[in-house]
Amino acid sequence: MEEVYHCLICRQPMRSTKEIIPCFYCGKREKADYTCPDGHYVCEECRLATPDEIAKKTCEASMEVDPLKIAFKIMSHPAVPMHGPVHHYLVACTLLAALRNATKFKAEGATFEDALRRGKLIPFGSCGSLGVCGAAAGVGIAVSIFTGATVMSDKERSLAMQAVAEALRNIAEIGGPRCCKASTFTAIITGAKFFKNLEASIQIPEKPRFCSFASVNEDCLRERCPYFG
Fold first, then answer.
1. Is 101:152 a contact under the CB 8 Å cutoff?
2. What is the per-residue pLDDT for 5?
3. How many C-beta atoms lie closer than 10 Å to residue 54's C-beta?
4. What is the pLDDT of residues 176-194, one digit of tens each?
5. Tens digit of pLDDT for each residue in 109-119?
6. Backbone torsions φ then ψ of 157, nearest 5 degrees
7. What is the DSSP string of 175-200?
């Protein structure tokens, strides 16, 4: 019996092909051996990528102006776990990528590397141990990089903290136990709205009609979560 391969993105059975197809994550076009009915193809480099690498590659290549759509793409990669610190820098990177695509803001590889580095400073489980959700801090990282804030800044430093405060309040209202996916969705939506106040008009994503991760989250809040459906 011929072995059946399944798509990394949508889990549909793959079919053989000889087409030139862009990678779903990095956009590199190459001759593919397999693709799914929806045309998903993942190059070898992205298939083996770590969460850090796939976040950076996806944000560098994406032309999407909706940061939530970029986040969903990254979270669909099998290397990205249900929960974990990847969500801290994922928020910052996707907001910065959307800003680059929708405004004159320049975000290059070094920009995303900086966001990754800062996001990794936030420890796992900081929401419970420190009272600071890493996804909310990710909004602050994006605002800080966008405005060039430092510890000696006046308005810019305040803006970064205001953004985190808004994201934290919105995440806290969901309740617990924690869900890194719900926190990420909320942080990105909050961040997108916050940037409107900075005259950086990126698309404000509507909350997703349903979360595709509920089935793999043992602690899912289900009907109590605004993204469950």
1. no
2. 79
3. 27
4. 899 999 999 999 999 999 9
5. 899 999 999 99
6. -65, -40
7. -SS--HHHHHHHHHHHHHHHHHTTT-
As a whole number of angstroms, the distance between CA 98 and CA 96 comes to: 5
What is the arithmetic mean of pLDDT over 41-68?
Answer: 95
Q: Strand 20-22 relative to strand 29-31: parallel, antiparallel, unpaired?
A: antiparallel
Beta bridge partners of 22: 29
Contact 147, 199 (CB under 8 A): no
Using CA atoms, how far apart are residues 100 and 114, in angstroms rounded to an integer? 15
In residues, how long is the chain?
Answer: 229
pTM metric for this prediction:
0.93
Query: 15 by DSSP, 3-state: which?
Result: strand
117 in Cβ contact with 220 (< 8 Å): no
Residue 117, helix vs strand vs coil: helix
User: CB–CB of 30/23 below 8 Å?
Assistant: yes
Is the pLDDT at 37 greater than 60? The verdict is yes
Q: How confident is the model at residue 161 (pLDDT cuts 50, 70, 90)?
A: very high
How far apart (Å, rounded) are the C-alpha atoms in residues 180 and 88?
9
Residue 100 buriedness (CB in 10 A; 0-12 / 13-18 / 19+): buried
- Decide if pLDDT at 2 tops 60: no
**How many other CB atoms are found less than 10 A from the CB of residue 112?**
25
